[in-house]
Specification:
By secondary structure, the chain is an alpha/beta fold. Helix content is 35%, strand content 27%. Helix 1 packs across helix 12 and helix 6 packs parallel to helix 8. The termini are far apart.
């Protein structure tokens, strides 16, 4: 099994690479990145003879395809704006593919994956990814599904990397068409900060107010649960409260439109300037509480009775009591590990089907949960009669 890790020097993807080293039995792993300094630093950190570095720029399609050929699967940790380019390279190279974002740019490569008899699973981290597995686990115990409410708290700094900064600004772009809910058979677009809902997350996170976000679960779950009559799917999220206050202020004052402004003799996008500041500041790169928390509610019927399934997840604490999970790594490991699990399943033939697949088509929830538990990421379920 050979894995090519695109964007492997990133803070999240390097955790996925570490998981491959520890759990997959790979014979060769390439950390492929545009940044040779960080890429070689990751190889040195991993200290495993199976791991090597290769500089790659996905904007150079021909060279990237050549570098990927011969690998079983490409684990793609590139940013949202590069996913269309990176997926086209993976498809042309004749590899399986998996990434973290799943915003739809991958669909254009579906025919090439099918022609090469390969599969690509976009959006398989914590959310999207594990959240779909949680929803499908609950739905599998019901005859009909009425509502699905997916929520998460991502407790990390607002700008610890360029890709995270991009994700933050992308999700709250006022003009973004993909911020939708699925309601009564149609997708309805909503503005930023729509439909606030209080969600009680497991300790140490507690009560949070969450808003609709443009994640892939809305689209993929509507497809996967169409046969069970689902009527409402809402996907919400939150970051640390201080982050949310900042993004709300930026939205209310129009900064998220990223209009060009002149400062002395230079013209810049106002949001680009703010992002640059945050990435270079203590306030933008630190937070008080680190980690991830998922909360999925599925309501439906079985044998004439209504039930609510509530699924949550827990992971080792970020307080330093376990060094491998200390601080920011409690967040980055949560996101990176599921992608590594998915990559291993693709490479070892545990996924049937070809083309661009939604996670619900690709993976069995129980199998994913078992692999997560091996890494001390546990899924919990409570069932109520309504």
């Amino acid at each position: 099994m050979k894995v090519f890790c695109l964007g492997g020097a990133g803070r999240i993807c390097r955790e996925a690479v570490l998981d491959l080293v520890q759990h997959s039995g790979c014979e060769a792993i390439v950390v492929a990145d545009f940044d040779p300094v960080e890429g070689r630093r990751v190889v040195e950190w991993l200290a495993d003879p199976r791991v090597s570095f290769q500089r790659v720029d996905v904007r150079d399609h021909t060279a990237t395809v050549a570098a990927m050929q011969g690998f079983d699967v490409v684990m793609d940790g590139t940013t949202i704006k590069l996913n269309g380019l990176s997926t086209a390279c993976i498809a042309a190279a004749g590899c399986h593919g998996i990434n973290l974002n799943g915003f739809g740019e991958e669909d254009a490569s579906d025919a090439v994956f099918r022609a090469n008899r390969k599969a690509c699973v976009p959006g398989f981290g914590m959310t999207p990814g594990v959240t779909q597995m949680m929803a499908m686990h609950a739905a599998g115990q019901l005859e009909t599904v009425e509502t699905v409410r997916v929520s998460h708290g991502a407790f990390r700094p607002i700008a610890f990397s360029a890709s995270i900064t991009e994700t933050t600004t992308y999700e709250y772009d006022p003009a973004l068409p993909g911020r939708v809910v699925f309601e009564d058979g149609e997708f309805k677009q909503v503005p930023p900060f729509a439909r606030p809902r209080e969600v009680q997350l497991p300790p140490p996170y507690g009560r949070t107010v969450q808003y609709i976000i443009p994640h892939a679960e809305t689209r993929t779950l509507a497809q996967a649960l169409a046969g069970q009559g689902v009527r409402l799917i809402e996907v919400r999220g939150t970051w640390p409260e201080r982050n949310m206050r900042l993004v709300r202020a930026l939205y209310e004052y129009g900064f998220l439109r990223n209009e060009r402004v002149r400062v002395n003799d230079a013209e810049v996008g106002v949001l680009e300037a703010i992002a640059a500041y945050l990435m270079q500041s203590k306030e933008g790169t630190e937070t008080e509480l680190y980690g991830y928390s998922l909360h999925v509610e599925v309501e439906g019927q079985r044998e004439g009775r209504r039930f609510r399934h509530t699924l949550t997840h827990t992971h080792p604490a970020s307080d330093g009591s376990e060094p491998d999970w200390a601080g920011l790594r409690a967040y980055t490991r949560n996101v990176g590990i599921p992608m590594a699990i998915g990559a291993t399943m693709l490479a070892t033939g545990r996924v049937s089907g070809t083309g661009v697949l939604i996670p619900e088509e690709a993976f069995e929830p129980a199998a994913v949960f078992a692999e997560l538990k091996r890494r001390r990421i546990e899924i919990h379920e409570a069932i109520e009669t309504l």
